Amino acid sequence: MWWLAVLVTIVAVVGAYATWTVTRVERLHRRAHAAETALLAKLDDRAETVLKFVGNPGFEEVVALALSVVAVPADTQRQRELREYAENDLTRALRELAENPVWSDDLDAANRRVALARQIHSDFVRDAVASRSLPMSVVLRLDHRLPRPEYWDIEDPVH
Question: Are 159 and 88 in contact (CB under 8 A)?
Fold first, then answer.
């Protein structure tokens, strides 16, 4: 009869571990998705900040790039790639204008917020991807059930 108690204990422990793993993996995937939404919001905010410089000499190219960023949604994989290219072009153009006397603290703050949101998103994606390789996650095939979070390949605007 003692073997039945041991078996029930083992099943309970494995069940609790499986439940904990599923909850953790799903939570990390939700956080990665929320971080991506926040990153996109900060990128949009930066583009809107750049659009405040419409009509200022020397900002024509940057304003055009900001308009192209705002025009590209990130719904499909192709749109996401186009958005990454547009964001990188905007970041490079903003770096070239950093010494312009019209440059404002708003642009510096927007770039810092983008850099922070990018770092947070990258951290959550790293954790979510790592959680997909946990032994229980593999056994429960969570990697097939949950969409894999993707990194945003954009340059750090603060450097």
Answer: no
More confident residue, 100 or 123: 123
**Residue 21 φ/ψ, nearest 5 degrees:** -65, -45
Q: What is the pLDDT of residue 102?
A: 66
Q: How many CB atoms lie within 10 A of CB 157?
A: 23
Q: Are the C-beta atoms of 68 and 153 separated by less than 8 Å?
A: no
- Cβ atoms of 65 and 54 within 8 Å: the answer is no
Given a cut of 90, whether residue 100 has pLDDT beyond it is: no
Residue in 82, 71, 155, 81 with CA at minimum distance from that of residue 118? 155
Of 61, 21, 77, give the one whose Cα is nearest residue 69. 61
